[in-house]
Structures are given as C-alpha cells and as structure tokens.
Amino acid sequence: MSQVSPDAIERLLSRRGYRLTAPRRNLLEVMAGLGDHFVAEGIVSAAPEVGRATVFRTLRLLQDLGVVCQVVLDDGTLAYRLAPEEHHHHVLCVECGAAEDFSSPALESVLREVEESTGFTVEAHRLELYGRCSVCRASDH
Amino acid sequence: MSQVSPDAIERLLSRRGYRLTAPRRNLLEVMAGLGDHFVAEGIVSAAPEVGRATVFRTLRLLQDLGVVCQVVLDDGTLAYRLAPEEHHHHVLCVECGAAEDFSSPALESVLREVEESTGFTVEAHRLELYGRCSVCRASDH
DNA sequence: GACTCTAACGAGACTACGTGTCAATAGCAA
DNA sequence: TTGCTATTGACACGTAGTCTCGTTAGAGTC
Question: What CATH architecture applies to the domain A6-139?
C-alpha cells in the first residue's frame, strides 16, 4: 500500500544526475496508476506516446535506482512493482493480483541452515509467495 | 547429484499411458547429459533432430509429471532440472552453474509468520538461492 | 505380422517480449 | 541563448516459446 510517489522518484532522479524528461514523468504517472504491480507490456500500451525502447530503458534505470523491483508471478511471467529500497519479498494474491511486501529476519536462519548443509555460500536469493488475500477470502467464502 | 534415470522416467511415462516415442527417449538422454540444469534452447540445439515444438511439449509434460522442475536463474532466465518429486528448492552456483536441491522445514514457519502479518493465506511459493559452491570458493583464491 | 486408432510428431509461420542502432530532440548548465 | 550530450522514437532485429496442420509411428487387437 505504501507506494513511492512519482514526485519523490523525480527528485531522486535529478539528485542522481539523471534528466527529468517528459517521457520519464509520463511513465512514472502511468506506473503509479497501474496499481500494485504491472508488466512491461502494460506500460507500453498505457503510454502509447512513449517509445517501446524507452519504456524498457526506464524500467531498467528505475530498477538500478532501487525504486522498482522485479516480481515473478506464479505462472513465471515477470512483473514490476514500485517498492521500498530495502530488501524485501512479495506475497501475491492469485485471485485479484494484490501484492504486499514483507521482510523476514527468520529467512536468514533458513539461509544459514542451507549453507551448512550444502557447503555453498549464499549471496543472493529470490522468494515469492502466492496465495489469497483477506479480501478475496472474505468475498467468495 | 541424485538424478532420476532416463529409464525410470520412461517407465513412468508408459505407466501413465503416455507413448514411449523415439523423440522422448532422445530428449531424456540429452537432458541427462546436459548436467545439473539446462535451458530449453540448450536442448533444442543439443537434439537438432527433434522438432522445436516437441522439445517444449515434452518439457511441459515432464513438468506435469513432476520429474522436471523449473529453476529461475539469477538473471531471471528460466531453466529446468531433472529432480525428485518432493517439494524442494535450489541453490545455484553463479560461477560454475552447479545446482543442489534442498528442502527446509524452517521455511514453513516463515510462511506462517507472513500469513499472520499480512492476512494472506499462502498456497504456493518460489525460493531460489544464488551463491558459490565449495569447489569454486576453494579453487579461485 | 498386419491392421487400426489416435497420440505424438516436424515444419514452419507466428506471437510476445525485449534489445540494438542511429539520427533527431530536448534537458540543463554556462 | 547557446552548446553539449543524455535521452528519445522509430524500426529492424533477436530470442523464447506457441499454434496449426498434415504426416508418422506407438501399441493394443486380431
């Protein structure tokens, strides 16, 4: 629910020395309007006046800046989400598509456990949870 | 390390009423030979005599049968792995590509924790770990 | 071994998603 | 206002996977 505002992202861009162009402002508005999470193609069609390449370039830039993060949906497709900078994971509702962030200190101990049993050093990970949100559970019994 | 043998998979196929065709045998051999994990395109080029569509059809069939599972690599590309039927996760070496399976009971408590804090019911999840295996850590430096 | 039914196949066109190139444009600092 | 250059759009290209459809070949039956 707590989304990063387009304004805050614009300030971040200029602070980092990136230009504040019309297409970028445009895309930020569109993303904010697309809700919880969005796929690249959704942005492309929601902002037809912005070139295809620019959409993907901007998406990558925002990812590098840490204001947008990847979300792997349960069918394997890749989506994106405006998100806090700290490391976190997602719970996705398979029914309505709602997404929520969470971070789990307990996961750290799972990683340590795996390191011990496999001999690997774990340097990165992906975790996505899929289920049903409280609203959907309540509505269709 | 403990891979399912092509023979065992062939038996499973016929037991389930699927035909034991030459392309299927062929693909099973190829997959077993490609090592830890493999991408679809790798199979296509390693088995040029088998049609592209057949490779993907077979891959999906094997997934449905539970003898092949998806692996999301750290760069986001999708790979596959011959794997045990039980639910498990992967640790991938980003250097040599080695993969190992693990299952973690402790992860269950992470899921319960998230359910409580978010109000979601978690029905499925993906977890992939990326790091370096003991061999790679020992060899370079 | 021959017959038959139909699952499975191969070829190749097609779609979806993403990248690379390059000349034109427009931020923004001076 | 000017000039530098980051950024853009158009479009060709690449890659990953799907669909269609006429043909082939498992495998059960006689």
Answer: Orthogonal Bundle (1.10)
